[in-house]
Amino acid sequence: MLLRMADGTVRAIDYKEMAPAAAHPGMFANRQEATVGYKASAVPGTVAGMGLAHARFGKLPWKDVLEPARRLAEKGFPASQRMELILALQVPVMKRFPETAGIFLHGLDRPLKQGEIVKQARLAATIVRIQKHGWHEFYEGETARLIDRDMTVHGGTIRYDDLKAYQAIERAPVEGTFRGNRILSMPPSSSGGTTLIEMLNILETFPSQLGMEGSSEQLHHMIESMRRAYRDRAEFSADPAFFPVPVDLLTSKNHARELARSIEADRATPSDSLMTEPSAEESQDTTHFSIIDEQGNVVSNTYTLNSFYGSQVMITGTGVLMNDIMSAFTSKPGDRGEVKPGKRPISSMTPTIVLHADGSPWFALGSPGSATIPNTVFQVIVNIIDSKMSLRDAIEFPRIHHQYLPDQVDAEPGALVFDVAQKLRSFGDTIKPKLRSQGDVHAVMVEEGTGWRLGWSDGRRGGRAIGY
After folding, report:
1. Which of 11, 35, 62, 446 could form a disulfide with 327 if both were Cys (CB 3.0 to 4.6 A apart)?
2. 3 state DSSP class of 304
3. What is the mean pLDDT of residues 123-144?
């Protein structure tokens, strides 16, 4: 979570999941065991993160803040078309877990259909306990004991002591500038903010002009910026509690200028000439929201269960759906992403806030999408600042992705017109058209001149912008 308060305070809250004390390299027999079932879950951080944010910056009573969630759980909400489609894919795995199947599969193997009401009575009861006793209840109260008990019975690794020891961490955001505008983003343990600022710094060394959006020249410079920043991401991403991350180097203008000098005007740089090991895989199934209030307080928040419906495990008696974040660690000895007790896995989450040169808030954004997240945020920022697009157009504009390795340009439909694609191929780029959309940006903006609050929800996956 990234926050910029009306008084100018800027903070980041790292509530990434954490490996339990029993975690160790080689704990999984196969990839399936790391993604499905009780062992796949790391210690959840969302409740602690929201609790810390409320304690530091909240103004409404804790009970009132949680009441809409309790009401949704108790009274239910209609399943969406997207929910119906995704649940249909989950049936073969989800039906193995009775608590989860009871909510989403009618207790059997019949997934909810669009319009059916999703009620979660046990989750509502859990929220009531957290309303009454505070967020610590999840980590030290009855909910924690229920998680411990269910994990113990089913061979999971999370224990009561792991939950009690979990802490969300308040950090300073990473900061940079782009064309004179101030960029605030997420620091390590996420790699997203440093990667974003490094790309913007590299691109800034090249001039921009209106009408370049989608051109081979602009895209070439963006691809080469992505390639170099993602190369650094692969080498330096880590939980800072376990490895030092050179944030000042990665976000410096001098470093960007050095990297930009190796970019040729008409030639793609082969990624194997920049060789380092690629980063671990992440899930693309994440959630983002951006909020601004009437006073100008801004929040940009990204969080995840990792895969769709996480590990598929719903803790007995709680309605709490668990993550499969353990799959984000690697088993390679000595790797920065190697699983260790108390470690947070490498993440690409990039909640970002952009300020005008005078420090006043302009827009906030973020996206799901695994390794594509920094590139998605990067392109929307460039669309707004360099191409002067409206918030809607900047978000809906087709996107590309290059992450250093594999050495290829993934392109959404419409992102590369034929002539541009041919030009990039002549430079040496490998183009890979993709059918799956890239990202799902949700953003808010303060309109210049009027001060109006604007919002736009990406049409790629669904969602909406709401004003109160």
Report:
1. 35
2. strand
3. 98
Task: Please tell me the total number of residues recorded for the chain in this structure.
Answer: 468
Question: CA–CA separation, 425 vs 408, rounded Å?
Answer: 10
- Please identify which of the residues 286, 304, 350, 372 carries the catalytic annotation: 286
Chain centre to alpha carbon of residue 233: 15
Of 69, 104, 107, which Cα lies nearest the Cα of 83? 104
Q: What percent of the chain has pLDDT over 70?
A: 98
CB 174 within 8 A of CB 186: yes
Q: For the segment 45-64, what is each residue's pLDDT rounded down to a tens digit? A: 999 999 999 999 999 999 99
What's 370's DSSP letter? Answer: G
Question: DSSP class of residue 214?
Answer: T
Place of tokens 């490094």: 198
Which residue intervals of 373-448 are DSSP H helices? 373-385, 391-396, 418-427
DSSP class of residue 330? B
DSSP H or E run through 3: strand 2-4
- Shortest CA distance to 139 belongs to which of 169, 160, 170? 160
Q: What is the tens place of the pLDDT at every residue in 306-336?
A: 999 999 999 999 999 999 999 999 878 888 9
Do 288 and 370 contact (CB within 8 A), yes or no?
no
Q: Is the peptide bond before 406 cis (omega within 30 degrees of 0)?
A: yes
Which residue from 308, 304, 290 is spatially nearest to 351, judged by alpha carbons? Answer: 290
Query: For residue 98, what pLDDT band results from cuts at 50, 70 and 90?
Result: very high
Q: Take residue 217 and report the two structure tokens written for it.
A: 């020249």
Euclidean distance between CA atoms 322 and 47, whole angstroms: 12
Establish whether 46 is a catalytic residue.
Answer: no
Cβ partners under 8 Å of residue 278, min gap 6: 234, 403, 404, 405
Amino acid type, 251 = T
**Which among 230, 226, 203, 186 has a CA at the least distance from the CA of 353?**
186
- How many angstroms separate the CA atoms of 228 and 263, rounded? 10
Residue 378 in tokens:
């990067």
- What single-letter amino acid sits at 150? D
DSSP-derived 3-state class of residue 394: helix
